[in-house]
């Protein structure tokens, strides 16, 4: 029995670590087949420890605080948050910074466990803009960061990290405290009853089981803020990083905005495609996402290792959820600030018909995405000690049989 025996879980999820803590991703095809919104059953999970147990009856009384460099410290319940603040519902994709780490581990072992390419999921999140709350606490002069802390007690203290205060106060960044996912109460693995959701940034900043927001002059000194979610310079080895703490305490190496990324769901590794008697073309397809609210503007596919590229079609499902100007209403609940509508905080789906005969003459299919600021996925991998933010061209090898 693990400490999480109270948490229901879907057998389709693939465990990436031992029995406990729970770290899982869905099979990539199953994730893709669900479409734009991921069901809570197949949503990836990244837990550092045991899931805090909260009885349903106690949920309205869940307390959290806003403290630190504020004129008006606040202690409030989830019930108050729901009753006293405007609620918004928006689609946001969460991505673990370790997504695609397996490819790094294959080149050189990093300190992290092997994620495939399904450490990414999308939900409609309901909650309150974090800036609305912090405004009420009235930050004092010198306040520059928002530290966040969860209720999960871990070997190195509670899980916590921080964000810049000006991001939290900017409605266009869309940072929120969420209590619902796809219209239902949060599931235990995803932060029940209250979590932070930071659009466009690595999942590690979206603190689950939220208990505290602490306004500070400096970034978080929480162990998990310092020793997790960083990309150290590539020449720093696991041994060197363990012996020299200065590599970890340098806030320049902390990662926030996601890097542009994409992956192929079909074909999968090991999938068999029949060359004779089958269809002439195969619809190669997958997902892509950008970081920091930047929209993916193109996805390209190559069969000759990047000598020539073909342009894929992109479907932006998030547009179905955008402001309907004619009707003068939001297609989803509540206010959404203008800049947010111009941003892209979700993944998109791409596809391209590839001639099966051309595939037969190729040794691999590779894909790369580019965002509106021309951040393009690199050809080469940037290995680092935690194996994070891996985003080189995604490759499916073609092997011929028979
Ligand atoms: N918050 C707490 N309190 N404890 C955690 O272990 N993991 C973080 C983040 N928030 C974590 C947390 C990491 S690394 C990620 S990627 C996301 O939660 C994962 O969110 P999910 O499990 O809902 O997909």
Structure overview:
- The chain has 402 residues and is α+β, with helices and mostly antiparallel strands.
- The protein folds into 2 domains: 14-253, Oxidoreductase, molybdopterin-binding domain (Sulfite Oxidase, Chain A, domain 2); 261-397, Immunoglobulin-like (Sandwich), CATH 2.60.40.
- 14% of the residues lie in helices and 29% in strands.
- It has helices at residues 28-33, 78-84, 101-107, 130-137, 165-169, 223-227, 238-243, 246-249, 338-342, 356-360; strands at residues 14-15, 23-25, 45-46, 63-68, 74-77, 88-95, 120-129, 145-154, 157-164, 176-181, 184-185, 195-197, 210-216, 261-266, 281-289, 296-302, 310-311, 313-315, 348-355, 364-371, 394-397.
- Strands 5-4-13-8-9 form a 5-stranded mixed sheet. Strands 6, 7, 10, 11 and 12 form a 5-stranded antiparallel sheet that branches. A 4-stranded antiparallel sheet has the order 14-15-19-18.
- A hairpin with a 2-residue loop joins strand 8 and strand 9.
- It is globular and about 70 Å long.
- The N and C termini lie far apart (48 Å).
Keywords:
21 strands, Sulfite Oxidase, Chain A, domain 2, 29% strand, five-stranded antiparallel sheet, 402 residues, Immunoglobulin-like, binds ligand MTE, five-stranded mixed sheet, 2 domains, Nitrate reductase, alpha+beta
Number of domains: 2
Rough shape?
A: globular
Largest sheet: 5 strands, mixed
CATH superfamily of the largest domain: Oxidoreductase, molybdopterin-binding domain
Helix content: 10-25%
Integer-rounded radius of gyration: 22 Å
Instruction: For the record, give the distance between the C-alpha atoms at the N and C termini, rounded to a whole number.
Output: 48 Å
Instruction: Let me know the number of strands.
Output: 21
Number of helices: 10
Going by CATH, the architecture of the largest domain would be Alpha-Beta Complex
Low-confidence stretches: none
Q: Strand pairing plus helix content: what structural class?
A: alpha+beta
Integer average pLDDT: 94
Q: State the name of the first-level CATH class of the largest domain.
A: Alpha Beta
- What is the strand arrangement across the widest sheet? 5-4-13-8-9
- Reported by name, the CATH topology of the largest domain is Sulfite Oxidase, Chain A, domain 2
Q: How much strand content do the residues show?
A: 25-35%
Function: Nitrate reductase is a key enzyme involved in the first step of nitrate assimilation in plants, fungi and bacteria.
Subunit structure: Homodimer.
Family: Belongs to the nitrate reductase family.
Organism: Glarea lozoyensis (strain ATCC 74030 / MF5533)
């Amino acid at each position: 029995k693990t400490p999480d025996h109270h948490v229901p879980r879907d057998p389709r999820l693939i465990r990436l670590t031992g029995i406990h803590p729970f770290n899982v991703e869905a099979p990539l095809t199953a994730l893709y087949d669900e479409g734009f919104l991921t069901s809570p059953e197949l949503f990836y999970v990244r837990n550092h420890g045991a899931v805090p147990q909260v009885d349903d009856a106690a949920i309205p009384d869940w307390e959290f605080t806003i403290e630190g460099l504020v004129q008006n410290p606040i202690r409030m319940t989830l019930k108050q948050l729901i009753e006293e603040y405007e609620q918004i519902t928006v689609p946001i994709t969460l991505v673990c910074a370790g997504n695609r780490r397996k490819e790094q581990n294959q080149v050189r072992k990093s300190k992290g466990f092997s994620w495939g390419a399904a450490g990414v999921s999308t939900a409609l999140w309901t909650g309150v803009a974090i800036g609305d709350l912090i405004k009420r606490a009235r930050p004092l002069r010198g306040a520059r960061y928002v530290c966040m802390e969860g209720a999960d007690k871990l070997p190195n203290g509670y899980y916590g990290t921080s964000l810049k205060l000006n991001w939290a106060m900017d409605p266009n960044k869309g940072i929120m405290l969420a209590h619902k996912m796809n219209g239902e109460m949060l599931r235990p693995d995803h932060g029940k009853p209250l979590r932070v959701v930071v659009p466009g940034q690595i999942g590690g900043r979206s603190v689950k089981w939220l208990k505290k927001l602490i306004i500070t002059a400096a970034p978080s000194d929480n162990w998990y803020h310092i020793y997790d979610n960083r990309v150290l310079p590539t020449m720093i080895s696991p041994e060197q990083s363990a012996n020299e703490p200065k590599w970890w305490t340098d806030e320049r190496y902390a990662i926030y905005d996601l890097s542009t990324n994409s992956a192929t769901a079909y074909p999968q590794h090991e999938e068999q495609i029949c060359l004779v008697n089958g269809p002439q073309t195969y619809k190669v397809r997958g997902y892509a996402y950008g970081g920091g609210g930047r929209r993916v503007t193109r996805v390209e596919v190559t069969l000759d290792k990047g000598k020539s590229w073909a342009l894929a079609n992109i479907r932006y499902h998030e547009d179905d959820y955008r402001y309907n100007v004619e009707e003068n209403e939001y297609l989803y609940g509540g206010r959404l600030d203008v800049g947010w509508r111009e941003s892209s905080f979700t993944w998109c789906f791409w596809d391209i018909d590839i001639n099966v005969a051309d595939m037969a003459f190729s040794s691999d299919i590779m894909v790369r995405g580019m965002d509106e600021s021309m951040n393009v996925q690199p050809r080469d991998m940037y290995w680092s000690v935690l194996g994070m933010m891996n985003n080189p061209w995604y490759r499916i090898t073609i092997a011929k049989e028979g």
